[in-house]
Amino acid sequence: MPKQSAALTRTFAALADPTRRRIVERLSRAPASVSELAKPLAMSLPAVVQHLHVLEESGLIRSEKTGRVRTCHIERKAIAGAQTWLGKQYAMWNARFDRLDALLENKGEPK
What pLDDT score does 106 carry? Predict the structure, then answer.
């Protein structure tokens, strides 16, 4: 479990930045070169490369170099891990709110 927890921490830390979330959104549609990813961003290419490095270190993306072009791809497994965790949290909080609603409807009296 600690290994999974560390991976989840890296995933959410990487996704905490809006630029990295934007890159992940773009890659969710199709692989893209570093220059394609950098084009719509208002920052230098080295800054984009730093963001990509964080995403790669977190396991959210992978890249491959063919000739002079580095192409980035989304890693669905890392996204799925975050989605699973969020789904469990969502279910837990919904159940708690449902119990609270039931308690409030009964004005605190046990059934």
Answer: 83
